[in-house]
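seq as requested:
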Amino acid sequence: KGLLGLGLAGAPGNYEPLNGSGSYAPKPVGMSEETEAELRAEALLIEEPDSGVLLASGFGRHWPDARGVFLSADRRVRARVNEEDHLQIEVVEEGQDLSGAFA
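struct tokens:
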């Protein structure tokens, strides 16, 4: 979460910690229920684990602290923090212009 903030500092967008997360000072209770429903509808929300294998590995430890979603203002850049990986970044671009997606 800290490195993501440094890497995206100044980028137009918003970091939304999971609802109930107390680890991000600017949003001490996490995202609103409205934002949570919106992200869930767009399949962008990090869902609480229910797999025995994931739970046994410690994946759900300290849930939901230190987990959240960053969305750029245009929603082209999406980052999930501490889902199954520490950081998952997606860049979404319509068409076949791969280099344009990273411009």
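The CA atoms of residues 91 and 102 lie 7 Å apart.
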